Amino acid sequence: MKKYKPKKWVTYFRIFSLLFFVMFITTTEMKRTSITVVKNDNLNKSINYEVISNQQEESYKTALYQPETTFVGSLTGYAGDCPLCSGIVACKPRINVLEKGIFFDDKEYGTIRMVASSKRYPCGTILRFKVGKVSSEPIVAVVMDRGVGGNNIDLLMNTEDEARKKVGRIKNLEFEVLRLGW
């Protein structure tokens, strides 16, 4: 018995039909997805760059102020004008707080307060904490000095008298670490 062999034109027709079918489905699928991508609901068809910029900045700040970790410690106040103080912080750049004041200009966080901590938290660590006696808003500060132990943090104030009256000693305060070191 002879094996059935389709004629050449039948084979070509089958191949052509299969290719046509595959191309038709692919083209239909591409049209469907491209319509959804190109669709613009904005009636005047313009892009508001200010809105996009504000949303990007808000996203950046949200990510920037997410704490890496938290810890509980004590807060005290200190000043550069104490009898045994030189007024120069221990961390680089070694700023004279008697001349420059109690704020530091950080590249990421802007103008923030300065604090002293133990070596547990390296220089450049950014902390956030809330102390109602000092500020109604949370305080963001950078570790720029040493001289305290454990989880104690020393907030730099303008004068020793102000440090004693406004801060004193606050126990069991929660600190958020926003950045660990430079």
What does this protein look like?
By secondary structure, this protein is of the alpha+beta class. The protein folds into two domains: 1-38; 68-179, Barwin-like endoglucanases, CATH 2.40.40.10. 32% of the residues lie in helices and 27% in strands. The chain is built from four helices and seven strands; from the N terminus they run H-H-E-H-E-E-E-E-E-H-E. The protein has helices spanning 8-38, 49-64, 97-100, 160-167, and strands spanning 69-79, 103-106, 110-116, 126-129, 139-145, 153-157, 169-179. Strands 1-6-3-5-4-7 form a six-stranded mixed barrel. The chain is elongated. The chain starts with 7 loop residues before the first helix and ends with a strand. The mean pLDDT is 83.
In short:
The chain is of the alpha+beta class and about 180 residues long.
List the helices and strands and how they pair.
Elements: H1 8-38, H2 49-64, E1 69-79, H3 97-100, E2 103-106, E3 110-116, E4 126-129, E5 139-145, E6 153-157, H4 160-167, E7 169-179
Parallel strand pairs: 1-6, 3-5
Antiparallel strand pairs: 1-7, 2-3, 3-6, 4-5, 4-7
| Beginning-to-end CA distance, first to last residue | 87 Å
What Rg do the Cα atoms give? 33 Å
Order of helices and strands: HHEHEEEEEHE
When the domains are counted, the total is 2
Mean of pLDDT: 83
Supply database-style keywords.
single chain, Barwin-like endoglucanases, 182 residues, 7 strands, 4 helices, 2 domains, six-stranded mixed beta barrel, alpha+beta
